[in-house]
Amino acid sequence: MSLATDNVKQTINPNKWNVGNIILASLIPGLLLIAEDTIMIFAGIKYFHLRWAALGTLVMLNLIFNSQFRVLVVRERRHFWSSVPSKGLLAMVSSTVAGFALLGVYGLFIPPLALNQVLAVLGFSALCALCIDFPKFYSFRKFGL
Binning pLDDT at 50, 70 and 90, where does residue 127 land? Predict the structure, then answer.
């Protein structure tokens, strides 16, 4: 609901629904997100030495953080910092990220992770969102979106 209140710039002309171009432009960020998830799982196993249940918490946090940052990245056809999100959108993204970070540390209903592990997932997700924005911008421009 908060996305409906966003400050993103409207297009001058009606949108053209060229589904082929939308699919091609979406493949690049999508493949990068898959790579990010794979790296995070590998880090959970090899670097943090997490057991299966705690690895599930790490994957859940990664997916939640990615989804929140993805909203900020794809809401804008230009670079995500080209417009400031609405207060409602920022409040919802911030509260979701903070709430799940606390859930991951304190382990309510899920196996807990150490604070440094939760912060690593959060930081890696934010960094990847920034990195994914550049290929998104160029692929959207190349495919006329």
Answer: very high
